[in-house]
């Protein structure tokens, strides 16, 4: 293994899901739903499989899916794109993120990101030979995560190539505010950088609203916006994602993507096109169900003694383990399945400054209510 990849071990999601299987614990670790997505989408995939959509699709994705991605972005976020030149279908958001960074960063370029960060960010930046410049998200007295403006300003410099922004944010559940987004947009323009935005939880906002950075003045031309079907349509195993942006950035991404995977699962593409066209009620209903799950889990974790931080969106909520006598999230999560029959994920592994997250762990609530209740019952028995 090359030296630069040696610090990256097995991902925490793989480690914790294996622990869940081995111990029979309730798995609130890795973020995947335990129910299937919309029936119309599943039927369309089955039909496409049987109907012969089984050979290589076009590099950028089938036209029906590219049109559906554009129509969805226009409907929900008011962004206008050309489906022929401004959209690329990818193997999940993960490939889009990797291809974007590999396409835009020269060796030693710097990528400003927020920590805790989704684990593939650090690996993709390293694969590109670039350097991450993390800005720490810290919980405030109101239990909401924020960052220090001076720290963000200081992270930008002459080598900054791009900002990698995830909102709604995994693992904190933070939804970046309009003022925070305006500051990020200002800095991108002042330093003439690109932005790559990971918006896979775009429909899972329980308070406030989701705002794509690409929609802010001056940002459209410098932003690659990434999303994925996995979260919105409960099909994380399908790995159908996409990137949208100005043609020159999308074509740069495709230049790399053609040698990573070339193209992706053809029968799933018409199915995701169907899902993206579902009526508004699907999207609002899905968010309402997840919001109810969040409330259920937050109430339960609080009753079990955790100090629960505020999650405005995503599949996740973070909690402070110190009220339960924990000091180190990794040790706590390794013991929890045996001790309490529940799997959670320590968030400190998503920081460079690990002290900032040492006492925080993440629980996923994209699970059936009875599964959340079972986990809560077990956790209450801990104290
Ligand atoms: N970004 C974030 C913030 C995520 O949480 C995830 C999946 N959990 C991904 C990217 C990867 O998405 P995909 O499965 O579509 O590659
Ligand atoms: N994105 C999922 C999570 O945050 C996991 C994805 C993975 O296992 N790589 O839990």
Automatic annotation (TrEMBL):
Q: Which cofactors go with this protein?
A: pyridoxal 5'-phosphate
What sort of enzyme, by top EC class, is this?
transferase
Keyword terms of this UniProt record? Aminotransferase, Pyridoxal phosphate, Transferase
Q: Which organism is it from?
A: Actinoplanes octamycinicus
Q: What is the lineage of its organism?
A: Bacteria, Bacillati, Actinomycetota, Actinomycetes, Micromonosporales
Similarity field: Belongs to the class-I pyridoxal-phosphate-dependent aminotransferase family.
Q: Name one GO molecular function term.
A: kynurenine-oxoglutarate transaminase activity
**Domain of life per record:** Bacteria
Entry's Gene Ontology cellular component terms: cytoplasm
SUPFAM superfamilies, A to Z: PLP-dependent transferases
- Presence of the UniProt keyword Heme in the record: no
Task: Return the protein name.
Answer: N-succinyldiaminopimelate aminotransferase
This entry's Enzyme Commission designation comes to 2.6.1.17
Which residue stretches, if any, does this entry annotate as coiled coil?
Answer: none
Q: Name one Pfam family in it.
A: Aminotran_1_2
